[in-house]
Every structure is written in structure tokens, then in C-alpha cells.
UniProtKB/TrEMBL annotation, chains A, B:
GO terms for cellular component: cytoplasm. Belongs to the group II decarboxylase family. It holds the Pfam family Pyridoxal_deC. PANTHER family: CYSTEINE SULFINIC ACID DECARBOXYLASE (PTHR45677:SF8), GLUTAMATE DECARBOXYLASE-RELATED (PTHR45677). GO terms for biological process: carboxylic acid metabolic process. This is Putative pyridoxal-dependent aspartate 1-decarboxylase. Its cofactor is pyridoxal 5'-phosphate. The modification N6-(pyridoxal phosphate)lysine is found at K333. Keywords: Decarboxylase, Lyase, Pyridoxal phosphate. Signal peptide: none annotated. It comes from Neptunicella marina.
Amino acid sequence: MNKARASMEHLYRVFTAPEGRESKLAQIEQHLSANLADFLSRHVVASNTSLEDIEHHFADFTVPEEPQFVSDHAEILLEKLVANSVNTYSPQFIGHMTSALPYFHLPLAKLLVGLNQNLVKIETSKAFTPLERQVLGMIHQLVYGHNEHFYRAHLHSANYSLGAFCSGGTIANISALWVARNQALPPKGSFRGVSQSGLHAALKHYGYEDMVILTSKRGHYSLSKAADVLGLGRHNLITLPCPDQTLDPQLALQKGLELQQQGIKVLAIVGIAGTTETGHIDPLDELADVAQQLGCHFHVDAAWGGATLFSQKYRSLLKGIERADSVTLDAHKQMYVPMGAGMVLFKDANASNAVRHHAEYILREGSKDLGASTLEGSRNGMAMMLYASMHIFGRQGYQLLIDQSIEKAHYFADLISQQPDFELITKPTLCLLTYRVRPDFIKEVLSRFPDKRDEINQLLDNLTVAVQKRQREAGKSFVSRTRLATGKYHQQVVTVFRVVLANPLTTAEHLNDILHEQLHIARQTQSWTRLQNLANQLTTSV
Amino acid sequence: MNKARASMEHLYRVFTAPEGRESKLAQIEQHLSANLADFLSRHVVASNTSLEDIEHHFADFTVPEEPQFVSDHAEILLEKLVANSVNTYSPQFIGHMTSALPYFHLPLAKLLVGLNQNLVKIETSKAFTPLERQVLGMIHQLVYGHNEHFYRAHLHSANYSLGAFCSGGTIANISALWVARNQALPPKGSFRGVSQSGLHAALKHYGYEDMVILTSKRGHYSLSKAADVLGLGRHNLITLPCPDQTLDPQLALQKGLELQQQGIKVLAIVGIAGTTETGHIDPLDELADVAQQLGCHFHVDAAWGGATLFSQKYRSLLKGIERADSVTLDAHKQMYVPMGAGMVLFKDANASNAVRHHAEYILREGSKDLGASTLEGSRNGMAMMLYASMHIFGRQGYQLLIDQSIEKAHYFADLISQQPDFELITKPTLCLLTYRVRPDFIKEVLSRFPDKRDEINQLLDNLTVAVQKRQREAGKSFVSRTRLATGKYHQQVVTVFRVVLANPLTTAEHLNDILHEQLHIARQTQSWTRLQNLANQLTTSV
């Protein structure tokens, strides 16, 4: 390896001249652009390399003293980083919400970096600011469907913003609840409100004992983070039981009234449109009624499910979302945009003024700088990715994508139900479902010996864990796993495979293969043998 | 324009096949890659197009119904978006902290999107997680210089994290103060701490009247946001006067003791290493003493100045930063990484456990998932950009970049001082400085007629605003402006040009040109004429 020298000439060249077409980095790029699937399947060595082994490649904790040639470094990136990455583009990678992306995002990513705009202020994002406002308007209209007059009045107004782009659903949820908190404890008379005077003074001023947020046990962990960050405390995120994976409005109402009687302010009810674990949707319309009855903010976390609104066939699943005071959506999930495209939207264009702030050198009063009412400061122009996607797919294209995902999930659920050695745990509402290996020989035993249920389920849990791990390590397919309380087993918590069928490249054949592989692995495990022994023992002893 | 059809075949192609080499998008990409400066100078129509005119291009608020061909859309992006963007790569764009980036980030941005990893959890970022931990370790070592044993024990440990990557300095500052708040109000006996029980209960439990953060008036506006979000209230961010642009340790100590006597808890002192407006650095070592005396958290916001640590020549400017409990740095500033690479670091590897959280399907206890102690959830692999930069530049390369920026700022400050019609307002500590047009004929008048000082400074303010706007609209050069209290005029607030000299492509000639253009514009303004009249009037009347 030649040695690079740290000189201004060398640096100047790095800033002004691209690598030659024959250079390693250019080769990587060409391969990526020409055939991403091939690039990944050649370079990502999906393997059982342990994490500890990978860590050895990343063990140095000192900044390298001397410079390196770009091409030498590109070689290292390939060997150390790409080789040990996860092939999220693969149609057999159906374990998480990260999937294949359309090709046009590759050159667009480059354009984004080439333009390097900063959306915190107009002066560094002249056209990107109006573009982002337009994109927020489009999604706002998709969710709320306000009339033309509303959008004409607010879309590009310096005094309003319909929401904010942010790095992801977590920041969106925090932003929504931040706005809700500041609106619930506003300035009044000589009191300057929670935003200025803090939560302690505000609760005292308004005479509240405490402040809580209601959601179901399936609420995303970011809600607990939000409760912590915003000063409410994680304990004040009340997560109600949801035996059927969705929040019971009556239970929420009852709990809310009970808390109110204790002098506790219910800040918000959070409904979920597409839970992370099973893809269920809370009864949003009824929860909107409950929020109204309790006089609290209604937030909908539609980070996953929001894109369903593109589908005329399935959008009714989210009925009531248009009554939410705020909504979280992630374009990097079912809108197939690269990571980093979260959004929060507010029904009322005035809402985000509850967190508005100014500074001298930017965000001057009356400016249209987007940074004046966002939690984040400097931000890149990710809105362009969604802008391009909405134009290239169109609503119709997104509808096709959403519909085929949901229908694929129904197909897979049917397929699982037909297998004697598998058990469907949660049916798909959107394109998520959960299931487990449950050998046919144990099925009857499980229902015949209720006092053995815990023991059997424990063995089945071990089996599921073992299969999930080995399948992941084999590197061909990936499903994730989680633990769920299920009505079927009297709310016993069981371990399940979790599948997200958002990758449009996943076919029925892939799904068949995945089940075959799982069964094949399962039969070789100790847990399988133990279950067999237990079944034999129980049925013989009877 | 042909019409695209929404069909699964069409969509499948968008996910599996790149645009042809002759397509518009491919052409854009080739041009970008071959010569970024040329691409931008041809397509960015730096112009006086008004924001309102641009907004007309982005006025539609409905999701387009029908799909569009990628190439048709690429054409639209060029015409509407790129044409009206800001050329931040240009060496004459010296008004903000956004500058030219090295070329290798263009293909790397593509690789990042192609890999589409999600760093919230190992399962979707197998190699990126260790890489990010390594990068955090390198920067940690740069700041704190702990010994080898420390890094070997903590770098890849599931029980610790040395900090977090995040979208930017704002999230980093909030994260740091979140940790500080939770550490200051910890669980104790049966009390479960602020994280679980909330700020209201915690302040009561610990018997504090209130909780405040101390910083100077030059503290970034994100600190005020942090005070709001975290429930302290913006009013409880105490911003102390700083006539010389830096925080006086004695003043901080005095204020802190005074507050403590009132039963108010001083949560943290925030020192700034590179203020956004003038690039000044607080006396960090002395502030560390004060924090120690007050028994509070010491946070350093080094979003801008942190990269100075790469320079052996200038790193002593930040002496004392190694005593900070937490530090914010932005790699997308002086480390020349694309937007979205903020970091927070903690001296104590255990600190971030004050905000640790778990969830069933990810972030299981004992896992190395980075998401367990970050404010954000899903995140992309931006750490790769800094990893590559640190290897390709090396510490030596970064030192050259930092040194030449600072030295260029000194050169420019001298140049301004030599011009009879300009006035240097703040000298550079790092590569920022502020100045204004102050015609020679008014200089003497300004000192001779103290009772006219306000009036003259008001006219000079108008002059600076007019020149800054017209220069920006002319589209050749861009400096920003802000308002500063300056000791020279008895703390009167004056409007100044603000210059950030981070772009390595900016030459002495560019700087000369910028001054010439400003003077040329200034002479044509009404303010110039009014100042002339006033000067004549005053000197004649004497």
C-alpha cells in the first residue's frame, strides 16, 4: 500500500477532483449502481461470524495519524464493513421494518450530498424549504384532508407550520407530546407557561398533582422515552393491557376518569396505527371520542401504518386518524425512502407555535425558517426523497405496494395455518404477523394437559429462539422474534417469530422456503427432542 | 411527456433495475461525479428569484395520483429544486457553517443508501454497530484521552456507551442535559428518580425550589430548546452577559452560589467551544473549576470548535474540555462530513445508563444495541462517513484543514482592518469573524459626537442589512449577518456581517473580491448617502 501524504495539495484534490473511473471507489459505485442485488450478494458475506469477531476489526480507539488514499480505504470498507453488514435488500430479510429501496434513491442520495443544504434556515436551503413545506402539506392532506383554503393559507406561511420533518418516529413522537404538553400548560395571566417556567411551576400553577399519558402495552418504547425526556417520568406513561393487541377505548376512558378524579392531568391518549410487534391498529375513531370526553390531546403513532392511507382499499383501517391532534409517520418505512425521514403533523396549523423559538443570526421572527418550530436544528434535505417517491410512485403506485404487502401477509398467514408444525399467533392487520414452531405432536398435549402448559410453552419458547438464531446465522433468511402475551394461552407470554412483509421482492416461494428451513432447523434442536420426550411421556402415562 | 402506468411490473422494475446510462438521472449523476463545481455552477441559478416565486413551484398540496417516469421527474428536480438551491460548495459562500465536502462522500452516500442499515439494533447493522462504537471511541479519546485500559473495557461493552451519534448538535445538547438531569435527580431509597417519577416529584423529593442551567448569552438556541423540552423551562436557562463574547467564570460562580442559596439546584454549566456567532471559546478550564465548586454537571458545546482538537497547534484553545462531563461535537461542521452527524460524548462510561431503556423485540437487556441509550430510535449509518474521513484525512490532514481555516481568518481580519471603509467587530479565535461597513468619513464623527452614536449606528445597521441582502441576491457571494452587543460601543447592539472561513477552496482573492463587492454595493445605498449627509451636517455645523 502506498502512503498518502498530508499536504494541502492532496487535500485540495480530495475536495475538487473525483476518483478516477478505474479506482476502487468508482468500481464499487459502478457495481452498486448497475446491480445492487448482485453487489450485496457478492460482498455481504452473510455468515455466522460472531459479533466479537467483527468487533476485532473495529477495535482501534485512536484517530489514525496519517492520511490514507481513498482507494485503499474503499478496499477496507468493503472487507471490514460491507462484508459484515446485513443484506436488508434481500427478499428473504423479512424480520424488520428495513427493506429494499427503489433504485432512484441511490443517485438522489448523491445529489443530496452534492447540494449539502441545511434546512434549519432559508439561507442554506432556498428551494428545499418550500419543497419540505409542500411535502408536509401533501402528507397532511393525506391524513387530514382539510380544504384548499386551509392549505393555501398555511402551506408557505411564516406564522405556521403543518408539522416537521425529523430523523425518525421517536423524535416525531417526542415533538408531538412536547407540543401537547406546552399547549396543556399554557401561559395564563402573569404565569408564563411550562415552556418558560418549567413543569414544576406549571403543575403547581394549574393545581395538577401529576400528568400522565395513556397508551396500550403495545405502545412503542419511544413513548416511554418521551415521558422521561419531557419530565413527566416513565411511570406516568400508563400502558394499558391489550389482550387483543389493541387498546380498549372503554378501558382508556375508565382509567382516564379515574386519574382525573385524583387531580391528575391526562395529557394525551396515544393510539397506534400499526404496532411495531404485530402491526395492529387501535380503534382510532373511538379513541378520538375518549380523548374528547377527557379533554386531552389525541396523538396517533402511525410511524408504520400511516402509508396505508395511500390505499383506497385499506385506508379505512385507520378511520379516525383525521381526528388526531398530531400524527407521527415514517417515510423510511412503508414509503420506501432511505433511513432518516420521520414526520410529525399537526391538525391545527397553530399547534407548533407552542414550541416556537427564535435566534438572532437565524430563525428571525417572521422568517420562514423551518428550524423555528422543530426539535432538531440543522437537518439535511431528506424531504426531497419523499417528494421524488410520491411523484415517481404516485398515489396509485403506493397503493399497489401497500395492497400487495397486506395480501402477501394474508397469504403467509394462511400458509402457516395449513402447516401442522406451525402455529399462527397474531393474524395480520397490515403486513405483520407472528407465529411459532409448534410441532404437531405437541398440539393435542398442549390442550389436554393444562397443568403442563407452562412447561410446554417454555420448551416451545426455547425452540423458537434456537430456530431464529440458527436461521439468522445460516445467513439465507432472517425473521425476528419477540415475546407476546396472547389471549389463546390466558395471557401467558410466549416467544414468537415476527415477520414484516414490506419488501416487494419477497415472493410466495421465498415464504415457503423460510418455513421449510425453519422446520428443518427445528427438528435438529434439543428442544424438539425434549418436546418429543415430554409428549411421549405424557401420552404414555395416561 | 409519456405517461407512466401504476403496475406491479413497473414498480418491480423501479426496485430491481437502475435507470439506463443515457437516462436523465444517470446524466445528472455522471455530471455530479465528474465535476461537482461545474454541475452546481451550471444548474444552481444563483439568482434574485424571490422566495415567493420559488414557492409557486411547490404549491400543490395533494399527493400526485399517477406515477411519473424517473427521468421525467429528474428533469423536474433539476428545474425546480436544484436551480433554486444554494451553492454551499462555492468558495464565495462563507456565510454559514455549511461548506464544500470532499468528493468521496458522494459515492459513500450511495453506499450508505444501498446498504440501508438501521443502527438502532445489531440485527440490522451487524458491522455498523461496532464501527459506530469505534468512531465514538476515537472521538472520545481525542477529547478525553483516557488510557488504553478504559477503551478496552468500554468500547464494545454491552453495559456502557461512550456517547451517541445523532442527527446534530441540538439532539446532542438535549441528550447531554437529559443525562445530567437524570443523574442529578437519581433514584434514592424508595424514590424512583426523575426518569421514572418525573421532574415535579423529583424536585419535591430532593427539596429543590427549581432547577437551572447556566451559560453565556452566546449559548446556542438549542440550549433554550433543551431547557423547554426537559421540563426546566426556558426561563431557567440563565444566560449571563458576555461583553467579550466569552463567559466570565467569576460571574458564573457568583450567580451559581446565589441561586444555590435560594434553594435552586444548578443542574449544569454549559461552556461553549466555538460560539455560532463569533467562534469564541469560553475559558473551559476555569469553568470546570466553577462546576466543581458548585457541584454541578459541566457540559461543553463544541459542535463547531471540537474539530480544533485535531490540531496540535490550536488544540490548547480548548484546554479544560477534557474535564467536561459531556461534550457535543458535529462532524458535519469542521470534519467535512455531510449533514446529520452529531455526537454527544460522556467522560464517564456509565453516564448514559441514566437514560437506558429496553424493549422486548429489540434492545433486549445485555444486547449491544446502540438504541438502548440514545434519544433517537432508528438511525442510518452516518458514522461510516466520519470513519472514512478520519482515515482518508488522518489527524494530520484534519490539522492542515483546521490550521489553514484559522490562519485564513486572521488574514481576513487583517485585510478588513486595513480597509478605511470597514470595521472589524470581533477578531477570530477560530475561523469566524464579524465586521461591518463603516465608511471612513463617519469614523471620526462616530467618536467625536457621542450623543449621535445611536443614530449613526442605526444608519450603519441599515447599511449592513442592505449590503448583505443585495450581495446575497446578486448570487456571487454570501456572507450572513447577525446582531451583537459589543464592548466598543458600550454594549450597544449593532448589526454585523458574519463570516465562516471553513471552505478550504476559499482563497485570499475571493476574500478581496467579497470586500470590493460589498463596498461597491454600499456606495449605491440610501444609507450611505444618509450617512454622508449626516457627516457633512455635523462637521459643518461645528
